[in-house]
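To fix ideas, we reproduce below a protein record of this kind.
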Amino acid sequence: MRGGERIKEKEQLIPQMKLLTPLFGSFYPDDRQKDAGHYDENRTQVELLEGKDLAPYEAVIAQMVEKENAFGEEGVCNLMDYFHGRESIKQKVSQAIVSVKQVDGELYGCTTLTLRTNLEGSELKELCDYINGQYSDGWGEGFEQRDIAIDGGVLNVHFWSSGGLQFEKKQILEEKRKMEQRPEHGEGKAIRPKLKLIGKDGNIFAILGRAKAVLCDAGMREEASEMISRVTEAGSYEQALRIVSAYVETELSPAKEQMPDKKSMKKNQPER
């Protein structure tokens, strides 16, 4: 492996967490429709849009988000620069960058956290509350005033959500859906190579490296790359282990169902 490839792979292993929240939009018809009676100078005639309605406009919304983020220091707005909560959270999270992400045909607000180490549950809740506050009164308040020109009018996009902790819930649900789609043992399905966890280095990056090696040895390089990508977005150590165990067979993988032999069945029958 070349030096540049090693550096690139190391960068891909930086742990991140993507926090998703529903997006909403307000669409105002433009003055080209004024004669048709659809235009209101006070912009009171508004059509409310949800995530699935906003998905076709992902590119222009993302472009406006990048423009909004450009007002930050070093050309990117890092929400952690304005965080005044627990010191432990500041030490664990180096960046919180806002973007948008499409999942299953629906557009979501997305804040990507770059982690130095995993967050505790109470720390994640505090950070989610802070980001939702930024969506309401800080970053999001400024962004929702940006007019995004689309066909037929102007669009304003709102990141704030009353759901609050839907951040974490959405990520977990998406992760669960992905895991359910992974091939398991069985007829016509891929067989996962085995990887022992007990008695080995428990560092997640060490585990990830060994899992990648056994997958590549089994000719499953595409699966190895996919596994690494998903693990780097995991929200906790336990979640990362579950992802690894979906690609390689570990002590945490679901136990294979075995048919009991006749001797054991007879032995376990109650005596008459």
Q: What stands out?
A: Residues 1-13, 32-39, 183-189, 256-272 have pLDDT under 50 and may be disordered.
